[in-house]
Amino acid sequence: MKEYNVNCVKPGTLEVNGKGNNLAWNEADVLTDFVSAWDSKTHSLIEFRALWDSKKLFFCFKVFDSEINIDKKDDSLESINNSDRVELFFRTNDTLTPYYCIEIDPTSRILDFKAYPKKNFKFDWSWPKNDIAIKSDIQDDYFTVEGAICIDSMLKLNLIHNHKIETGIFRAKYNKSENSRYEPTWISWVNPNTEFPDFHTPTAFGVLNLMEWQSN
User: Fold this and answer.
1) Which tens digits make up the pLDDT trace of 84-114?
2) For site-directed labelling of 202, which of 22, 60, 100, 168 has its Cα 20 to 30 A away?
3) 134: β partners
4) What secondary structure does DSSP assign to 162-205, as a single string?
């Protein structure tokens, strides 16, 4: 499994503002090795960073894209699902019973749900609002999505084992096709090695390692 080290910062060091410009992000490793396993198109650069302290897991996506598609007809699940977005999936075990999905578009709209194998989605579940914060920012040639999730909430959901979080990191990019419809390109950190696009499979996950605090 692919692994990413989540460096530790002192509590109170990082506040989410959606821009990803806090100096604390300089302490994070930059993950860029995303693949589009089912599409021959070259996708734009994606940078993912994560940090943590004793209370929160922080993450930041910076997606380089000057042609963002956002379905603005309403704030329904369907509208978010038809928009460019970034995604984090967290699983309790490799049987996916259950796992938890957070999908976020460039305007901070969240599609979050609980799931079970064979794409059995429970949209009546959502992350407790006091345990997650999401902000975003759109510029001419990129957008950022920044978030913080309470560690306690992840522990209650049985998502942290021995300082490890089994995680899928994804991006959905919608491009206008020849018939003027928008079609998705599916991009992931881990290549699931499936015949058809599928993030909802055990092979789509890697591991986030929560590193110990290192004082200078």
Assistant:
1) 999 999 999 999 999 999 999 999 999 999 9
2) 60
3) 147
4) TTEEEEEEEEEEEEE-TTS-EEEEEEESS----SS--SSSGGG-
Per the structure block, which two tokens stand in for 85?
Answer: 């977005």
**3-state secondary structure string across 42-54:** CCCCEEEEEEECC
Q: CA of 156: how far to CAs of 45, 54, 159, 161, 174, in Å?
A: 34, 15, 8, 12, 35
- Residue 38 pLDDT: 93
Q: Round to whole Å and give the CA distance between 16 and 107.
A: 15
Compute, in degrees rounded to 10, the torsion defined by CA atoms 140, 142, 148, 153: 120
Half-sphere exposure of 209 (CA within 13 A, CB side): 9
H or E element in which residue 90 lies: strand 85-91
- Could you give the domains of the chain? 3-210 (2.60.40.1190)
Is the model's pLDDT at 204 over the cut of 70? Answer: yes
Residues 92/81/57/97 CA torsion (nearest 10 deg)? 0
